[in-house]
Amino acid sequence: MAKKVDISIVIVNYKVKEYVSNLLSSIYKAASQYTVQIFVVDNDSGDDSLAYLRQRHPAVSYIANEDNLGFSKANNQAIKEAKGEFTLIINPDTLVSEDTFTTLIDHMKRNPKCGAAGCKILNPDGSFAPESKRSVPTIWAALTKLLGLHSMFPKSRLFGQYYLTWLSENQQAKIHVLSGSFMFWRTELLQQMGGFDERFFMYGEDIDLCYRIQETNYHIDYVPFTSIIHYKGESTKKGDLRYIQIFNKAMYLFFDKHHSSKYSSLFKAVIFSAILLKAIFSFIFSRLRAISQITTDLILLNISIILGFLIRFQFSVEIFSDLQSFQFLWINLLASGIYLLIGALFGLYEDKTDSISSPLKALLFSYLGVAVITFFARNLAFSRLSLLIGFGVSVILMIGLKLLQINAKQNQIYAKGQIKKSKILLIGTHLDARELIPKIHARPDWNVEVLGWVQIDANDEAEGFEIEQDIKSQKAILNSLGLLSQLKDLVRAYHADQVLFSLSTLSYKEMLRAISTLQGLSVQCKLIPDSMDFILGKSKVDYLESLPLVEVELALNKPINRLVKRSFDLALALPLFALTWPFSLIAWIKRPKGQYFLKPLAKYKWQNRSLFLLGVLHGHYSWVGSILPVQDNHYEHNNDQKGALKPGLTGLVQLNQGKLEEGQDTEYYQLYYMQNYSLGMDMDILLKSIFQPGNNWK
Question: The pTM is what?
Answer without folding.
Answer: 0.74
